[in-house]
Amino acid sequence: MSEANLSVELRQDVGKKESKALRRKGQIPATYYAHDQKTISLSVNAYDLKRLLQKEINILNIAFPDGKDKKSIIRELQRDPVTDELLHIDFMGIKLDEKITMTIPVILSGTPEGVKVQGGILEHPLREVEVEGLPLDIPEHIEVDVSELEIGDVKTLEEVETSDKFRFVTDLSHPVAIVAQAKVAKTVEEEEEELAEEVEGEEIEEEEEAES
Q1: What gap in Å lies between CA 142 and CA 170, rounded to an integer?
Q2: CATH class, 3-94 region
Q3: How far apart are CA 67 and CA 83, in angstroms?
Q4: Strands annotated E in 83-133
Q5: Assigned CATH for 96-212
Q6: Per DSSP, what are the bridge partners of residue 6?
Q7: Band (8; pLDDT cuts 50, 70, 90)
Q8: Integer Rg of the chain from CA
Q9: For a surface tag, which of 36, 42, 86, 177 has the fewest beta carbons within 10 Å of its beta carbon?
């Protein structure tokens, strides 16, 4: 579990207008909340936040203006659906001796036999997984070795070896990796033949309906 420091500023004014003004100044609106604590409105330097998000960081030491640090995790990131611009971020305060639930990336390692030898295609349907455990026991990511998979093989979350210090919250039957048969591209002649057969079938149907 990696940690990083992040400085924040208190935010007095809230609302859409105020949030847009903050973003124009290079700041991202944020909220901090924790169990039995009052929610705090914050702002974060956009450059610092973007640089932090490029790393595999799970625990943040949020530095408040009063000099106090609060250990937190990122609970939610809001982005513009069109521009992907960061709009808002929620931080949740944590305690190192209390279990938390969070989402971490799933990374595939190795080249499957079904791809390397048999010409199949590797599919990666599960790219993130939800886990529960003590903050320092949760890894930055889950790495899954897929080198032995052949065409038709499916590796589920249940087959992934992990530490007993945390558990998966995501359904264990969910497929993590699949090696599928590569689709063979059809020639122009084959496509024309299929189209001709479809047209001929439609004409026969129309004739039968007319006769009836």
Answers
A1: 13
A2: mainly beta
A3: 35
A4: 86-93, 100-109, 121-123, 128-133
A5: 2.170.120.20
A6: 62
A7: very high
A8: 26
A9: 36
